[in-house]
Fold each of these.
Amino acid sequence: MSLVERIEICLKGLGEAIGIKKSAVYLWSPENMCFVKGICSKWLPLKSQKIISRNIISITSEETIYYKLRKGQSVIIDGKEASSYLPDTKSIFIFPLICKRDFLGIFVMDFEDISIRVDKNEILDLINMCSKHLSISIENVQLYERMNRENERYKQELNIAYNIQHSLLPRDIPTLKGMNMSAKSIPAKIVGGDFYYFKRFRANKHEVGISIGDVAGKGVPAALIMAMALSTIEQCIRYFNEPGIAFVNINSIITSH
């Protein structure tokens, strides 16, 4: 169930319990320091969500009201002041949605719509219970969305690492008379520590040096060591044209790290 659906169910249930005809939830963006999303239940006869959203933002931008809400205090606006923000409204009730001290948004309703048959204390208890439920739902959904974004970013970074790692491996495989060679690295995870390298040490076309490496461990740490080892092998073999001398220096450099 989406966050919007959960909020709409909660608003509808509260509306039916105490006779609210107009209500909405506005989500707060800490990054943008403003309300970024207004959620109104479909069954509510709101004239225009855009107008409501704009007027709610103008209310909550007032310093006194804003700090009250951030401190967890509810706000009631009566009379002409209420109708100046929302036409045909005599009383606006704004209740902050807070979970674990995080300001998540506000729950707004037309307080005048509340049934006179319902006890005031009962109303406040129901609103408080609804607000807590909304706060927990919003917190859980936002946490889930953040985790999904982080996982997606992590997957993208691993895919980039995979492409970089495979670009380090030699693409051109030497050919030898009477011998067919092929090479492929398939890591246990997206990236790994296996690698290979080809090098002709001498001008003789019949002699090819082959290096095969398997770094202990898996994943990103092994991939980083693999990149260092492969770079060291390539540089040393270019500088030292004898296999024995080259690998003595390769071993010395790798073990020093």
Note: The beta strands are 23-29, 34-39, 75-78, 91-99, 102-110, 194-199, 209-214.
Amino acid sequence: MWQSCRRLHLLTCQILTSQNLTHQNLTHQNLTRRNLVKTAVLTRQNLAGIRQ
């Protein structure tokens, strides 16, 4: 029972994952871009702070 339940769960997960992959990739790219911007801004602020 447990085995078949797990197998079914894995299959469901794989199907959902494959459907979500494109969405996740887009989201991940957006997050990465946002993080890069955040990091750049923080770095700029830090540099400005060091100059003062």
Note: The CA atoms of residues 28 and 42 lie 20 Å apart.
Amino acid sequence: HGVFCSCVYVDVYTGAGEAPGDVRAEAESSTLISVQWSGLSNCRLVNGRIIEYRVWLVTCCTAETRVQELGDGEDWSSGGEILLSGLTPFTNHSISVAAVNENGDIGLYSDPVTILSHQCKCHTNCSSRYF
């Protein structure tokens, strides 16, 4: 009777790939932070081209989290930048970035970058004993 074997075809799911690199953040004001990042090194080898990035923001010591999407269907394989506004002044914010490919697959999030937003102008003349 011999061994029966049928062929099996498998679609390999690769996702959107690695995390974006060189994530940088700079406080522009007490409520505004700019974030920049470089593209993926294997952008042409992943399961579809990169068309969007998701920026994950966690405001430390609060329950506030936010996900902002950046993309318009164009090729975003070289990286990107975004301005995050409406932030809590003089607070640490943790930011991570992930790529999304044209199939909707979300890649790995970058290691978080933590940045302190500026102190608002109304408190710059206050004595440190009040904090």
Note: Residues 124-131 have pLDDT under 50 and may be disordered.
Amino acid sequence: MHAGSRGGNIVASGNDDRTVEAGAGPSGVSINRAGNLVLVANRNAATVSVFRFANGSLTPLSTVTIGNATSSPVHVQFTPDGPLREVARAPVGDWAQGIAFSRDGKTVVAQNMADRNLAVFRFDNGRLRDTGQRIAVNGGPAAIRTADRQ
């Protein structure tokens, strides 16, 4: 899967590449656990494109407006039970590029590219609280994921 071409396209890679139209400035992609739904954050359009993935093909389902001209999505992620919804908002650093949740869903880390750090939040009872903790990194973080421990 590739996102980020100038034309606002997503390319489903495999034996037979196909291009489908997403919104302007596709920058984040998430695939649900079942592998049949794909979300694309369109940072220049303030939208999220929703696609169905079946039989090697992406089919557009809908487009959801999230944000505005000064605050657009750059990252999307499925919740464990699958629905697309906004659960909380909090100010983050300069040019926030993505988030990752801990396995228990109680810690949220936001990456701030221009500030060159990771901001740590706690998510409890539907509220997002800034812990004030910042983890400095050498470069501007642009992609973040969590890994399960074995």
Note: The chain has no helices and eleven strands.
